[in-house]
Amino acid sequence: MILGMSKKEYNQGVITVGGCGTSVLHDVVDMVNPAGYPHFLLFGGNTDAADLSDKFEEPGKDGNVDEKLDAWGNNITLVQFGDDKTTQGFGAGGDPEVGREAAGTEQSREYMRKFIEKCDGVILVGAVGGGTGTYALSVAADICLELKIHTVLAIVVTPFEREGRTKEAIEGREELRQKVPIICIENDHLEQYVSDLTNEEAEKVKGGFLASRRMINKLSIVPMLKILREIIQVPGDAKNLDPNDYRALLKVGRYVA
Ligand SMILES: Nc1nc2c(ncn2[C@@H]2O[C@H](COP(=O)(O)OP(=O)(O)OP(=O)(O)O)[C@@H](O)[C@H]2O)c(=O)[nH]1
Ligand SMILES: [Mg+2]
Fold it and tell me: How far are the Cα atoms of 51, 78, 94, 96, 248 from residue 86, in angstroms, in the given order?
């Protein structure tokens, strides 16, 4: 028997917000079955109710999201931000202040609070520049800090310059950066990843905007989440890092771009 032993399982939470966050969440679930990772807790929040359910429904099988959530053992929580008075489930219409208000309703905050209470550390994921993600990330960060979750890291996507949302994106990113350390993924740097694409994937990227963004998720954000989970949760022979090393690292590196 090891005297004084108090080692516990480390619950790593991932909170994704907005359309970008929901896509990343979908890509994560595509890669790993949440039921197999009871200490890797996933949360997806969006003002756009249809976006939340459509991404998790199988084509042609309406209403099977609840069944899926049950099958995943409630390791994943999906929440519509906002209420009848704010966004009514129809998105934030590109207005970051509407997104802030929707994520900040008592009900939305309560859902986030309940989730965050179960977590030892939280990774926030979403894009700045659009209506929901720009400030929903900050609202989530505030709740983490209120609940004294010190191990919080945000993975933040900035939009393509040609979308014309740079001002909103910078304002959202800078507000968040005052609260938690961030890793910034710039969509405009897609070409950095292109050398890793197969010919077929490169063709898809050329074919459209949506495919480009999803490729960035697949090549950078999802692997990053996978690696972070492994560093934090999987005891390693060689790397010998544990959750408290990770916490110390976040204190040192406030901004990684
Ligand atoms: N890399 C990547 N970028 C994305 C993805 N989805 C959206 N984006 C980028 O994120 C920016 C914001 O988009 P969304 O996250 O869909 O916006 P939102 O927060 O849902 O805002 P509203 O729809 O106005 O409520 C866009 O301008 C895109 O550049 C994605 O799946 N991957
Ligand atoms: Mg949206």
Answer: 17, 18, 14, 13, 39
